[in-house]
Amino acid sequence: MRRSVVAVSGVLAAVMLFVAAPVADAADGDLIVDGTPYHDLAGCVFFGADDTHSFENNTGNAITLYETADCQGDSSGVLAPGESGTYVAKSAIIG
């Protein structure tokens, strides 16, 4: 009986982790960076070593830009859907 309770508890814990885990949905539309379209974006996106880029947000989501390659630290800008501009950024988080 005790083994059954432990087994059921383990299964329930695994199910709770699966249900509680956030799911990153890909953004609809394109983010254009220096003329190059990026499709189906989700999570942190790295744009390369050059710091200054031209951005055009054709997605339905806000895009937060970062000067670091790993989407950490202070943001260098936020592009609302439909906005464009030139920013110092190496990475971005969509949504």
UniProtKB/TrEMBL annotation:
Protein name stated in the entry: Secreted protein
Keywords of this entry: Signal
Source organism (scientific name): Streptomyces alanosinicus
Signal peptide extent: 1-26
Keyword Signal: yes
